[in-house]
Amino acid sequence: MSAGDSLPSIDTLLAEARTRAGLDDFGSQWFVEPLGVMLRALRTEANLSDAGVAAHRERILAALVNRLRTQEAIKRHPEIRDERAEVAGIIVGLPRTGSTMFHRLLTTAPGLTALRWWEAQNYAPFPGEERGRPVERVAYAERLLASMLAHNPDLMSIHPFQVHGADEEIIILDQCFTGTMPEAYAYIPSFSAWLEQADQRPAYEDLRTVLKFLQWQDPARAGKRWVMKTPGHLAALDSLFAVFPEAQLILTHRDPLQTVPSYCSMVVALQELSTAQSDRVKVGRFTAQRWAGLLERFTRIRDTADDSRFIDVAYEDLVRDPLAQWRRVLARLGEPVGPDAERAAAQWLEANGRDKRAPHHYTLEEFGLATAELERWFAPYRTRFIHASPSS
């Protein structure tokens, strides 16, 4: 018997979430199917430790409580659904391509906003919270990040976590039990296979509702447009296009031969927080092939899609002159910038340069990967976007 066998049933989790929240209505229960698929994979494939079982159980319960509280808030304040959450751009590219830095740089523009890391952990206010004063939720996020770094100090060199920084809405999709985040937390290939054929539109519709909810909570966001960012959107482009038709897609491009080993390192680091014994080779090879498949699918879609909807940003250009790319992309998004915005962006870059972070060390070999394999797996994407110089 493995530790994963002790994960509760769906009915038990739903009941405990209702008790914890003191609420009963989850709204549409479409999420029960992906939750069931994920639970089965966690039990049978993830090789969870006792700590991992506790962490995943709490992660699921927190997501269910957020859903209950959101449903209750909308009942009390139906005007939340009337909020106009307009998404200007969505950064979608392979992990480790400078996308986090560029996301945060873009949102220094005064007319743009983004999901903050602390909001992603608990997008619904805690009971008794005064609107616009999320003190306890921020404190919760600070404690959570401190705990994560205590278990694995190398995480900060892999991803520049910032409690108040712009971060990925994949954390929200994870709380819908979809998206690619569950497979970063645990080795669950059957969940990944299910996700390949699943209709993810309900999750993206819930994501838009969450953006409206966050906008309603924070009056300072009035009149601003959102910039989203999640590499995992590559696994659900049809749903993304359908739910956010107004958004332009911003592609950050870098050779996968440089990015994939780094991303494998991040996945292994995350999985080691909850796994009884991590197999770096198994996880590394699965992760590399998974992203090769996603990029091959994206390349096919790009060949037939309206090219005016895409903005390409080469990693080399982003490193060489980030402000030039910032201006170019904001112009494409129709976002005006003046001297004050220029100063804010330059100050952000000065305070958050890559040299402020510890170096991140990894090798291909530790993940059972070879250069020739990566060249073969990523050939369509590299031919179209790396060798052809994607910037426009």
Describe this structure in words.
The protein is mainly α and 392 residues long. It has a single domain (3-123, 133-386), classed as Rossmann fold (3-Layer(aba) Sandwich). The chain is 55% helix and 6% strand. It has 19 helices and five strands. The chain has helices at residues 10-21, 32-44, 50-76, 99-106, 117-121, 135-151, 155-158, 170-174, 181-185, 189-197, 201-217, 237-243, 256-271, 280-304, 315-320, 322-332, 339-351, 371-377, 379-386; strands spanning 87-91, 112-113, 225-229, 248-253, 310-314. Strands 2-3-1-4-5 form a five-stranded parallel sheet. The chain is globular, with a radius of gyration of 20 Å. The termini are far apart. 42% of the residues are buried. The mean pLDDT is 92.
